[in-house]
Automatic annotation (TrEMBL):
Pfam families: AMP-binding. This is AMP-dependent synthetase/ligase domain-containing protein. It comes from Desulfosarcina widdelii. Residues 103-294 form the AMP-dependent synthetase/ligase domain. SUPFAM superfamilies: Acetyl-CoA synthetase-like (SSF56801). It comes from the Bacteria.
Length: 450
């Protein structure tokens, strides 16, 4: 068996945490570096941000061990929404980009994030090294993400790829799968970077198989990535699909899979990632699923300290087949608030579980869900987006059968507490074209379902 190449992030992290040039990277070297970088970040934040000055009051001036990380209070999305400028640690003239994230929450207040040119360079550098697993010099990449604005994800990716002598071509999010396929054929790209349902819509399109043999690798990003989508794209194009985990708050990039494709290796020179119990906030040992919390270690514009992402995942206990000492974050199980309680007896599942079942059905390229609760009864309505208007009754039957594989749904139906209604999406057949995370809409008629 040929040995898998080690993730390019390993050497990159080793060089960044230096100065032990030529010496193999070790966990203790990473821990030592992260503790120093964390203390630098705490100093920077206390000195330059009114929010952190108050937020971090009472902490010792210098943290002596990463074991004491839990003494630092969390930062939340709400802190950013309330007064984003209070978290900014650089003067306004040094801010190169402001990103506004619309929220689907009830407050309606958007989140604003601030980055300096040096912060953006960190992202370009990560994209440069992270993409080295997928592309070789001379290859071409079609980027199916926003990229027109300087500093946008597509723009930073083009810049990172150019350092690998790889040409990045920005197409933008896919609103017309046939046009995106044509563009990929015309540009003779070897690799695609896109949003899971949008790339699935391209692969599943009747012209999609034309890209088989041309596309070698695909990177799926932005949203939580269902394995069922990965499997379908790989089958149609006979390519390798890699996953990237990141969010704007992380500086867009967080972690990327190596050739083993068994989880995300993290940019540990820039981010300190922890898993905590979402209810108690206490740190969890590796192997346990909890909420992903991260601290930026090198960010100057708006450092985030123990920021709660709401995403649920676990660190893998086994070492990666590529042989890296970097940690591997396992599958993102979806957001904590994307967990659905089916009954008062607490039968529940993640939207991610539903995704795995529904996207495994051939011909489904997207869906939207809605939960209506009335008294003790719940109705789960799934609006399915099919690739083409054919064999729809069969598809609906397949989706029903697939969701019934989830025991929480099956038992709630057996109790007569749940009805599952499967419909086809109204209007023109279209996948979600935005970059927002999937949500299930909740409607509660009367608040008696608890
Ligand atoms: Zn690996």
């Amino acid at each position: 068996m040929t040995k898998l190449p080690i993730t390019p992030l390993e050497n990159w992290v080793r060089r960044k945490i230096g100065p032990d040039r030529g010496i193999a990277l070790t966990r203790s070297a990473i821990d030592r570096y992260q503790l120093q970088a964390l203390n630098r970040t705490l100093d920077h934040a206390r000195q330059n941000s009114p929010f952190y000055r108050e937020h971090l009051v009472g902490l010792p001036q210098t943290l002596t061990s990463l074991d004491r990380l839990a003494e630092i209070p969390f930062t939340t999305a709400e802190d950013i929404r309330r007064d984003p400028l209070a978290l900014v640690c650089a003067s306004q003239d040094r801010i190169a980009r402001v990103v506004t994230l619309e929220t689907s929450g009830t407050t309606g207040t958007p989140k604003r994030l601030f980055f300096t040119a040096a912060d953006q360079e960190l992202t370009v550098d990560f994209f440069h090294h992270g993409m080295a697993t997928l592309v070789q010099p001379g290859q071409r990449v079609l980027i199916l993400m926003p990229g027109q604005t300087p500093g946008s994800v597509g723009d930073l990716l083009v810049r990172g790829l150019s350092r690998l002598q790889v040409e990045g071509i920005v197409q933008g999010p896919v609103d017309d799968p046939a046009a995106a396929i044509d563009h990929a054929l015309k540009e003779k790209v070897d690799c695609l970077v896109g949003i899971p349902v949008q790339v699935l819509a391209m692969a599943s399109h009747r012209q999609g198989p034309a890209l088989a043999g041309q596309i070698c690798n695909v990177l799926l990003s932005t949203d939580y990535v269902p394995d069922a989508i990965v499997a379908r794209i790989e089958r149609i194009w006979n390519c390798r699909v890699f996953k990237h985990y990141g969010m704007t708050e992380m500086g867009l990039g967080g972690g990327v899979e190596c050739s083993a494709r068994k989880g995300y290796h993290l940019r540990e020179a820039d981010l300190l990632v922890e898993i905590v119990d979402p209810a108690t906030g206490l740190p969890l040992a590796d192997g346990n699923t909890g909420e992903v919390v991260f601290t930026t270690l090198t960010r100057e514009g708006m450092p985030l300290i123990r920021y709660r992402t709401g995403d649920m995942a676990a660190f893998r206990l086994d070492s990666c087949a590529c042989g890296t000492v970097l940690k591997t974050l396992g599958r993102i199980r979806g957001r904590q608030n994307a967990m659905l309680e089916m009954t008062r007896r607490g039968r529940r599942f993640f939207i991610g579980d539903l995704d795995e079942k529904i996207f495994a059905v051939d011909g489904v390229i997207d869906y939207r869900g809605r939960i209506d609760r009335q008294d003790h009864h719940t109705r789960l309505t799934l609006h399915i987006v099919p690739v083409e208007l054919q064999s729809l009754d069969t598809m609906k039957a397949c989706v029903r059968e697939a969701v019934l594989c989830l025991s929480a749904i099956r038992s709630a139906m057996a109790d007569g507490r749940l009805t599952v209604d499967i419909q086809l999406a109204d209007g023109p057949v279209a996948v979600s074209t935005g970059t927002a995370k999937r949500r299930i809409e909740h409607r509660r008629e009367r608040n008696t379902c608890r």
